[in-house]
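Hi L.,

As promised, (rape) hypothetical protein:
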Amino acid sequence: MIAILLVLDFVQHLTYLKKNCRTFANSKRWMLRLAKSPSLAFPLMVFKKMEAVVSGKKRMVNLDLSSRLLSEPLIPGLSDDVAKLCLALVPRASLPSMGRVCKRWRYVVQSKEFITVRRLAGMPEEWLYVLTMDAGGKESHWEVIDCLGHKLSSLPPMPGPVKTGFKVVVVDGKLLVIAGCAMISGSHVASSDVYQFDTCLNSWSRLADLKEARYDFACAEVNGLVYVVGGHGGDGESLSSAEVYDPETGVWTFIQSLRRPRWGCFASGFNGKLYVMGGRSNFTIGNSKLVDVYNPQCGSWCGSKNGVTMVTAHVEVGKKLFCIEWKNQRKMSVFNAEDDTWEVVALPLSGSSRAGFQFGKLSGKLLLFSSQEETGHSTLLYDPEAAPGRQWKTSEIKLSGSCVCSVTIIA
């Protein structure tokens, strides 16, 4: 407990120093203030690193985290296993500040292992990330909502040009924004860019590009790997190619292509397999009800005709997939992967049937957001475990604009 309090005390002092960095750079008294705090138990190298960075000397820069740095203790007097547990018990909102203490702490905070330790310690916090668009359709930003439905601060702006037809996915507690179509010099250009938002460090970074630029494709995470399938390519052609990304290696690799090009589709992962549904195909008239299923163990595709067509919103809650189809915005189609069946759930909505909606999920419940700000629809909450007739409620969550998409991240 003492070690945990020391971590929190140190993060508090670090935040204070950050706000007074100019004074700190010109005087030693802030260093003395920090040294007199209970966090003196932390390594002197941390203070020296802070002093070097703030004064511009940057003596401790080492981008590849040398073996010497990795061999230094996280917290003197504690084994690294115990120290990692202490760091994991820090509230999620303080993790970005903790990641700025030193390179070793930053390395730990952004690691996959750190998320695992927080889960084992019972400390993971569930946050909902919602991409909203203003009424003019020109500016968007990510809003963050905690597990109690309270709004937190917005994310830093996404890097890169404004795009449509991109996809978002979560892997290892990080948000990935993949590819899409950008307007450059008056022309639509397919993108292969991939950006990652580290929710523990509150920062964006660029990952390896896709092998093939695309937009309006399907994307999902399965067993810790990210898959992209189909879509439109650089010349607007429909694609059948598929790729997989391994976060451990940071590399995209082509996998077996679909039997036919497909676009406007979406994907979900169930029982260790990738399901691609909806959209259109070159070999169907109108919209496709075919479900393409990829088995990573076999490295091959199979299919069934028990699917949905033009889906405008979808979300996985538990072991079920909830979808809204373009042709009917007043009902949800619910897919149960356990027995490969569908059921229909009516939405408690009135007014124009043209009003579109997007899904979110929080604490095992489904949220229904309006995708058109001017409709005036309240956010609805659906509890699949509640008794019939009591499953729908009005949520107090209110977005600042229309909902484009959302993801839930537990970290």
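The radius of gyration is 24 Å.

Thanks again for sending the construct details.

K.
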